Structure formats: C-alpha cells, structure tokens
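One-letter codes give the sequence; each number marks local geometry. A record appears below:


***
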Amino acid sequence: MQKAIYTTVGIDELLPHVQALKGVGARFVQMHAERNVDDGSYRLVYTFINVRAAQEQIAQDGSYAIENLVVEGIDQYQEIPSISSYYPAVFPFENEAHDLFGLAITDMQIDFKGFFYQVSTAEPMSVITPEVKAAREKAMKVRAAAEAKARKAAAEKAAAATATAGEGDLWLYVWLGQCGVLHRVPVYFDQDHRQFLSSLRPRDAADHDAQGRRGHDRLC
C-alpha cells in the first residue's frame, strides 16, 4: 500500500529540505504546478521516494511512502529557486512550470528560455477565463462575508463580556482574626469599571446574610 506524506514549506525552506532528502538517498519522482482558482496564486508539488527505505518497508508490511514537498501561495512573479543542482532530472518539469504557468524559476541547470513548449498563447495556464474570473470573485465575496460575520460575532461577545460588570477583575483579601484565616472576597464594579458596587453580585444580594453565615461557619 502506498502512503503519501505532504510537507508544506516556504520558498526559502525549499532547498534545505531538498538537500536533506538528497542526503538520505531519496530519488526525485516528479514536480507539478497548480493554480488556485480562488485567489490566482500558484502551488508547486515536488515528489520524492527513498527507494531503500521503501524496499525495507515493503518487505515488512507491504507498504511504502512517497514524500511530497509543497510550496503554496506563490505569486506569478515571485522567484523560485531551481532544485536542478540536486536533481538534474527536474529540468522538464521546471521548464514546463515556466512556459505554461509563467513561474519565475531561477538558476535552472537546463533552461530552454521559454521554448520548451511551442504554444499559441504565452503562459496559457495563467490565462483567466470569464468563468474562472466569476468563480474567483464569488469565492472572494463569500470569504469576505464570512470574515465580516466572524468579526461581528467577536465584537458582540466582547460587548457581552463587558456587560457582566467585570466579574473577577479584583479580589480583596480579608483577615478573619477570630478563626485565623485569610479570606478572598470578589469585588464588582459597574459596566464602565469606574464605580465600586459591592463585593456581591445583584443576584446574590438577597441571600447575602444566609450565605455569609454559612461561609463563616465553613471557614472557621
């Protein structure tokens, strides 16, 4: 059984991860580019397999793993370092990403300078059709509405918390000399936290005397 492992890395982390895979004997399998319809950003997926480790794992339980490095959120004009200094076999894939998607891959060991493919439209995978544009705008509106709803809910929650009159903001410590105990008493303020109300919440005021007697008995 094949298991795929995906590790998301930043552009500046790509080469160190590739170097580490090379160091443990992993082989390059493939690389491909994708475009995010929602925001127009790009995604690169690099696939590797450690053949020796895979053979050992297959002998044990019949399974093996392939490892994928994923670089997301790439801008079309953002420079991406070539991994061809570690894996020369990547050159068709990197040239494809450049020619079809317009990605700026730098320092390719074998660079066709935009002529790896003969295409009638430059960077055809970067062309936005009316349908894709409409879908992207719809997704952006849905996301903006969801974010606005979340902000409103957070503001309402904060207002509700403020309306509870700052419960637990302050405690007074009272020495009960008759029983030798230091007692902690909560203090409550008004909604604006400007005026001291009492050490009792309004809903507790009716039972103040009875609770006080029971509390003293428990303490002493």
About this structure: The mean pLDDT is 79. Residues 48 and 162 are 54 Å apart (CA to CA). The two ends are 69 Å apart (CA to CA). Strands lie at 2-8, 27-35, 42-49, 64-74, 79-81, 104-106, 170-176, 181-189, 196-198.
